[in-house]
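User: Here's a protein and a ligand (nicotinamide-adenine-dinucleotide). What would the complex look like?
Assistant: Let me lay out the input and then the predicted complex.
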Amino acid sequence: MTNHSLSPLLDPSSALADFAGMNLINGARVPSDARLDVLNPATGRLLAEAAAASVAETDAAVAAALDAGAGWAAMPARARGKAVAAAGRAIAAQSEAIARLLAMETGKALRTECRGEVAVAADLLEFYGGLGSELKGETVPYNPRMLTMTTREPLGVVAAILPWNVPLVLMMLKIAPALVAGNTVVVKASEEAPFATLLCAEILSHHLPAGAVNVVCGTGADCGAALTAHPDVAKITFTGSEGVGQAVYEAGAKKIVPVSLELGGKSPMIVCADANLDKVVEGALSGMRFTRQGQSCTASSRIYVHDDLKDAFVARLRARLDAMVIGDPLDEATEIGTIINARQAATIRSYIARAEATPGAEVIRCGTRPAGAALSPELFELPTLLLGLPEDHPCVTDEIFGPVAVIQGWSDYDDVIARANDSRYGLAATVWTRDLNTALDATARLNAGYVQVNQNLTIQPNVSYGGFGRSGLGKEASLEAMLEHFTRKKTIVMSFDG
Ligand code: NAD
């Protein structure tokens, strides 16, 4: 077996060959009895066959995690943290190969997306690696003749279920705190993008006891459902769609185990008349995640711009988008890659068609589709701006998960806050203003778990992140996530003898 943590410069093609048809169980690549095709979305051709883990293979991964659990939990917390941080550095050292693999399986551009994603994933391991000694309990002044205290214990085997859009960051947001807290993990990779996940997990496994990190690949209906229902899984952490999130929550409820959910979003961006238009245009570009083809739960996909700025904003955003390079994800010139698959592309196009069929609506397509013999044109979707839609239009209410931003005008501040809050989701929101009173008022009134003013930061390791309403349950990132979601609190009361 190639030791991927020691190879000086990994080759993504050989990593693909190594992981074809494999799960990672008990520190080893284990061939699956069944296979699933994983396509390169940019070419439409087969990238490699991935494992399609059966119930028995999923059970074997949980058994390996369970076996590793007692020894891992018994290690001093700082030693666990040091091992996790070392794995982060090893992943950073192989970042180019991992980023290329990620670009090949997701269609995301190497330069604008994949390199950054690997860097954040490695940083999350280093961040949580330093927090081992923060697994503190409390002492309680209950009775001077008694010692009353709480301790933090690991939960056991954690199931971490991943989507395809930012698999490595979402993987580390789950498994880094879980591992440092003394749990062992079984990752369910996305069937669309399992290979970079496997490669990172294998690098991690070189720094951890065998079985501490396991990965199963396959469909949600097979290995995903088997994993969530498994009696030895003590915690489920899921990122994905709302419907699957409900099924996962039900599976947890049947066993009475904790479940954290990061689901969808339709995040508002409110631009006031006094905002700095240069910053707003750049904020809309980054906030809408156009370089990720808008495939982001946090995308600022409802942009409410004050009527005084709206025409100038649309013109400038359109000009910026027209100039962006859409193309081969591995080409250094490319800023925007492809949609993940044909099903997702069809969904996006059906929403655009509904906007086009709406009287009074304006649909602005930006940029140019790439031409090239090696590229498959179907999954390159143009950045699209939708104007003039009623607030109850599906393009305004639904998560499209594509490069489609709705732009609405406004003139009444209370009305725009109400429109921003009129959503089943509550993941994120941004407000753009130079007025401190407006900023403070809006942050208090917006119904979202992550509210920012005059900026549109992505997930940061030490900043709590998570949604309200249908956007999910529980926070990820930060010390809080490790303590609240990956430990259980035990209360101990001791009497003095005599
Ligand atoms: P998805 O819900 O289709 O799949 C997510 C994962 O769940 C996959 O690994 C899938 O195989 C698995 N799965 C499917 N059925 C299952 C079942 N019955 N039991 C257990 N696992 C099952 O989501 P997706 O299409 O991969 O990702 C896109 C979605 O993810 C979007 O809705 C997006 O908003 C959401 N998302 C949310 C966040 C966030 O932080 N809030 C971040 C990224 C993506």
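Summary: The pocket of nicotinamide-adenine-dinucleotide is lined by residues 161-165, 170, 188, 190-191, 219-221, 224-225, 228, 239-241, 244, 247-248, 262-265, 297, 399, 401, 427, 467, 471-472 (CB under 6 Å).
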